[in-house]
């Protein structure tokens, strides 16, 4: 089991804030670019 501090992090391409790995992104972590659904929707417009 990992501590939250040991999880990989990325910087959001839209808002520039750091975000951590989530279990739902386990299969596609390399493809994740935005930290949230809101940032993802904002990027497309």
Describe the secondary structure blueprint for this structure:
Blueprint: E1 9-11, E2 18-20, H1 37-44
Antiparallel strand pairs: 1-2
**What's the total helix number?**
1
Termini Cα gap:
39 Å
> Structural class, from secondary structure content?
alpha+beta
Order of helices and strands: EEH
The beta-strand count equals 2
Dominant shape: globular
The largest pleated sheet is described as: 2 strands, antiparallel
Organism: Halopseudomonas oceani
Pfam families: DUF2256 (PF10013)
Protein name: DUF2256 domain-containing protein
InterPro entries: UCP037205
Note down, in words, how this protein is organized.
This protein has 45 residues and is α+β, with helices and mostly antiparallel strands. It has one domain (9-44). It has one helix and two strands, in the order E-E-H. It has one helix at 37-44, and strands at 9-11, 18-20. A two-stranded antiparallel ribbon has the order 1-2. A hairpin with a 6-residue loop joins strand 1 and strand 2 (18-20). The chain is globular, with a radius of gyration of 11 Å. The termini are far apart. The relative contact order is 0.25. It holds the Pfam family DUF2256. This is DUF2256 domain-containing protein. It comes from Halopseudomonas oceani.
